[in-house]
């Protein structure tokens, strides 16, 4: 396009700067390619689905993550940049507060135009422009790299939402559509008893520390790193499994009010919950609807699609409790970040998709997000960044709970020990599970 | 396909029977072709839009009208018929009462699969099978012809819904998409005063009489023809115009509670009504969103997209009232059925689309449906037909009001003097207008 | 009491005028006394109950009916009149539209002050002032008499609401309070089959005619008297009984969607209806909560507390239909107005209370209001009266159905053949029943 | 009554035991007397008010606090005890979960019977029986004393609710009733700037320690005492005042979305908040409705009736934040518990009522509850007590925020440094205010 600046312009960069630009460019390309791969199996009709206000159509995710790069990098920093349609800034912003109820968040599924082809063209247009900016050896290259990195992590968050929103949208179709064909025979493992590992607690540090081993990207809400005091505790060596959950159901867990928080009981009654979301019983066996179509429930795999209310009731029934996020983070320590993530690895240079459903045998990371008992609150000394990006996380710090560890819908590159995701206690459509904790002896 | 019966099998038919089959076959072909023409300008994304429970996606209309022929003719009468997918019967039935809230009427917009291509193939499959049945010279040809005729009128009703549901769905898009390009310069006529024609009333007959000049198709609710007594009355010679409506608005009609029915006032306050649906003001001029995109409001054209509540308040403000449906039907008499309908006529053998918006200068038919003050109730002696088709209209006979005359979204072939359509008094998304009446002297 | 004004003040009146004033004064005194008698068994706490927006506290009814005389007679016509508290005009008007949601109709139960004693003092104050006006031999005595008559009929309507609102309010108390002790052993009659009487129909007249035998009071909506044409029909000789209704229930009437109007089915499912309001089953027998406390259901007595939706479904199940209001009024003809009303008669000069529950053996009047299939619409030529009183009935003419005949909660003096009451099709808390009709042969 | 055991039976008690019984008896008598004093100005009608589900009628508070002593002491421990009506156990329990929606929590205002007189008799009956049990020198006297103490603290919580629920109920009355006449001229103080006190933080202890200086009563949720780590911080020396709040309002605080949590903004828009609850503007001056009737807003007095959402937005606007509950408790330290509480002191042996509205000049306790940024969560090692009383606080530990310090509606005897009350972030009808905090330097 319009960015003809040759690579030789970067001659004045330090090797570290060059490495940084190279790494960010690779991250950008991989992230954008993953979004394209995620929608490759989808029809234009599939990409329109918005089953509820909490979810967005795939097409919107594709456009909104593109708008982010345009709005925060290209428009303010590239005077030659031209948007394919200035009205996209309005359509694909997250919050059209000023636009009134006819264009509210729950109406994203009514935006049939621009169509998918136009959105893919918009993506390509922005990618080309941004690649040129990254190549151009500009004075503000370091700042731009930081913003691109933020944009990539933002897009990875939306990749996770894209697949879980899609699962929710497709779940209303009586035909039970298959997003990805099953990869082999469905697993049916044995449900082994859980064991607990003791942790001494004491005065520990938590949160992201940019200057230490955790160097890299983190969100504002993971900082500052700070001290917190933990009593001795024990943490289960695996998430709660489907087999455990079926035992809870068979013991009448969904019908015993004494196990439930008062708000949780009211919610469960109002919604008619008697099993995790997407489960049904057929010929005496439990099935669930997944991104790989209908699947028999594997007793050994982590339970998924349970709300905080259900997780809390389960823990009480078990004579245990949910961990705090400090306990979880302290226990995770420097465990390597391996697990069942959205991307399974590389195959001939291109990323391959992961299992897309939780599987038995994982560790602290992947498979399911794990509810903690910690409300999503600011860390001591928290300060939101300046400017529009400052709205990133702070305004959500009420009524939500922190989950840790990532899931089978989380891109691997998004994960780190300090990562905090958060959802409302009634929500179930994400890959939400739990791991039990106990006070020490 | 499977229907090999040669045309010579029809040798035993009477000429009248043969004419009837020929006419019905032509009606079937024209009706099915019109549905295809209506969606020709649409993308798969456009055909997914379901903006509210009252509306359905275009794709659903296409499939549901096809299911009707399959369910009521092919399956019970053609033992060789095979559906492309037996699950379509579930997906495209009107009322999935047994299927629970996850598959309720307001979730039709979440059925991304089958996609548009599959639905078009389903249509072709059923059309081919039905054409063969019509050709086959069967003993039950007369019954089948009646059912095909019913199916065509059913499809025409859905054609009207298809375009008005589409208008509603597209209206949420801030880009204000254009379904059909404007046909020439937008009209801006002068708003002439209304005049009234006197009618003597007395004991009159109304309703459909199959044996008389009205011979042809009619719905159950138009029968039996019966006597009713009318006091002398006067009826306006044209519908209320946009210019009239602007005068009402400027006189504070939307703010004067004494003009409104109590339920109407509550509805108008709750919904924030201060103009017809799709209207907005820009630089001192009124605009409206139409199937031909944003258009300046033509003072001379009939007002459209007003609810019964608004129509009733307008009539009260005017010192007039809405007519009863008996008054309307008696006044219409045997006026020829001409007007601004969904189809404009024929051009080189193929139907052409009409104006798609109301225009000045029309008569009793076309442009806008006209609210009457008559609730939709059974005529004396009404009996619903036997069987599943018996549910056709009777179960709607509460809380709705009758409108007469057809609109610019109504296929011409659907109209007749006795035709009763009906909507709830709060609804506005159809092509709904009004014509005033007065008591005599 | 305080009525010392000598009759000689009225010396210039004609005997007819004097008779009219005497009659109206008696009506006023009897009406006001009945209101006092109705609340005599109630505590101040009982008089605060407002169980839903459709209902009002007894205290409010007492005050509002008093405000009517103050607002429309005393304030405009008696310059010496002083209200005990000018703010009552605001508190006890029907519609505080201008006052915003904090003082809306559904908040009447939150007006603890003025207390019952203050309201009773307000009543006495207005009664005294009005009696003086009636005695005074004024030039506008005829107009005042008309307004007092209207006020008395208005108060009688509120007497009916007072007892049915009270029944609804008390029904939420698990102690099942008794308003009036049962008058003898509860009836348990045999349920005899219904028989139908044939009516010829034809061109008939209906509505109130002030100049004929019906001379007396009527509401605007009962006029003008007008012609209407009826096909021959048959009308049942008694209302549908509890025994009939139990048969409907046992036949699965509440579970068979094909019997119901679509809106009715949705309402019944949403509300969980499976029997008339206030019914429950105990040891295999049906009981209902009544103004005389819990009572076993009498199979021979008319069913009560059923909605239009239920009445319509019952009629369809019976192979019959509801009558139109014209059919009902024509059949009633000049039947004497006798029956089970709110007041049973006179005992030592003072009125006595009636049964307060429907009983077997009645005629066209009393026991239960009878749903007709006629929506509440204006009669041909209807014109609301001028002024504030003009709002009386016209603004309710949408979405409601007419009932005829009065009930065991209706004051006898309120009834006449042309009387139209009206309720929404989902409402059940009034004394609502039904009588079947059929098309002739 | 039935408890004839002579005082000499207590001969075997230790002096400490005797002192304990004497103290508890005095607490019981004072608590019960305070409830009677609180309702002395109320009519039976006033005691029926239930303006919303969160609030209960005064009559219900009187009965429910009595039921507590009956249910947990008299019935299980006094075989001779007879309830005046066994059905009261059902009517006056907190949660009629099994009773279905017709008797749900929001229907307490529909229980007109038993009336106030019956409820007062119920109170006297239980008081007499309990006094006899306390006098009787029983073996389980210590356990009973603990339960009576719990019952008194329970009743004190309900006293606070009684007056704030009453204020809310009366606020719907356009007459703006006065619960207690103003005590002197309304204050109009000057609003002095706030100053901050520095606190070093570090590893501190918080929560109730029964064995230490805090010996006495505490709820389960205040335990166990535990360590927590605090960064250095600063705490304002006074609550936010009305003057401060008016500055926030005048600066457009209610209209600036960037100041608000996302859920808070949505709530404020939905509810139309633009000032604290009960405020209105009149002739350019702010007024508020209080338990002493309409009062001009005192700029120097603490602001009250603001939600967490408003408090959080105000703090952000101020460049400060809300304190955590650990910061608050640590700062309070062993400050004497003095302040503007529900009871002002003793006058001739009987308690007198306090100001009933917040006043300028107070310290950490009294006037207004102070929102903290701490969600209401279990302390590390929290275990709910066994049995029905175990439901006391644990089931509320979600979606609520902790407030500290007590208010002008809190009985003085209820307060201690570890006391945690909690409300939902949208609630405003309690005496809710705030005090600012800041991170140190």
From TrEMBL, chains A, B, C, D:
The name under which this protein is listed is Ergothioneine biosynthesis protein EgtB
Q: Which organism is it from?
A: Pacificitalea manganoxidans
Pathway membership of this protein? Answer: Amino-acid biosynthesis; ergothioneine biosynthesis
The Sulfatase-modifying factor enzyme-like domain, residue ranges: 200-334, 364-438
Positions of the DinB-like domain: 28-161
Q: Name one GO biological process term.
A: ergothioneine biosynthetic process
Question: Mind listing the UniProt keywords for this protein, alphabetically?
Answer: Iron, Oxidoreductase
Which Pfam families does this chain map to? DinB_2 (PF12867), FGE-sulfatase (PF03781)
């Amino acid at each position: 396009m319009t960015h003809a600046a040759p690579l030789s312009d970067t001659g004045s960069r330090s090797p570290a700067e060059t490495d940084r630009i190279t790494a960010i460019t690779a991250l950008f390309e991989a992230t954008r390619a993953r979004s394209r791969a995620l929608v490759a199996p989808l029809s234009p009709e599939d990409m329109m689905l918005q089953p509820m206000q909490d979810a967005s159509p795939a097409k919107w995710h594709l456009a909104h993550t593109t708008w982010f790069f345009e709005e925060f990098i290209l428009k303010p920093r590239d005077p030659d940049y031209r948007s394919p349609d200035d009205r996209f800034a309005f359509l694909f912003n997250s919050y059209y507060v000023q636009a009134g109820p006819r264009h509210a968040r729950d109406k994203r599924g009514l935006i049939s135009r621009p169509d998918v082809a136009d959105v893919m063209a918009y993506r390509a247009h922005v990618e080309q422009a941004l690649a040129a900016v990254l190549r151009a050896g500009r004075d503000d290259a370091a700042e731009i790299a930081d913003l691109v990195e933020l944009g990539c992590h933002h897009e990875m968050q939306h990749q996770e939402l894209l697949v879980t929103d899609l699962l929710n949208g497709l779940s209303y179709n009586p035909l039970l559509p298959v997003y990805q064909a099953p990869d082999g025979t469905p697993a049916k493992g044995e449900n082994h008893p859980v064991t607990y590992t003791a942790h001494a607690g004491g005065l520990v540090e938590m949160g992201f520390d940019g200057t230490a081993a955790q160097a890299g990207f983190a969100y504002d809400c993971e900082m500052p790193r700070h001290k917190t005091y933990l009593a001795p505790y024990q943490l289960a060596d695996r998430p709660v499994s489907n087999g455990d959950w079926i035992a809870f159901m068979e013991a009448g867990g969904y019908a015993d009010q004494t196990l439930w928080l008062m708000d949780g009981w009211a919610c469960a009654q109002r919604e008619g919950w008697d099993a995790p979301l997407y489960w049904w019983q057929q010929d005496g066996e439990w099935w669930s609807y997944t991104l790989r179509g209908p699947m028999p429930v594997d007793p050994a795999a982590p339970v998924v699609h349970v709300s905080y209310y259900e997780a809390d009731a389960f823990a009480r029934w078990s004579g245990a409790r949910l961990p705090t996020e400090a306990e979880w983070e302290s226990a995770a320590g420097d465990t390597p970040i391996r697990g069942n993530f959205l991307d399974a690895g590389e195959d001939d240079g291109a990323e391959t998709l992961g299992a897309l459903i939780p599987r038995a045998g994982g560790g602290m990371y992947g498979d399911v997000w794990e509810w903690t008992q910690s409300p999503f609150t600011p860390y001591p000394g928290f300060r939101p960044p300046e400017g529009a990006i400052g709205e990133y996380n702070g305004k959500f710090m009420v009524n939500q709970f922190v989950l840790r560890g990532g899931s089978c819908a989380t891109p691997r590159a998004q994960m780190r020990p300090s990562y905090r995701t958060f959802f409302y206690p009634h929500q179930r459509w994400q890959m939400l599970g739990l791991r039990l904790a106990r006070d020490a002896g």
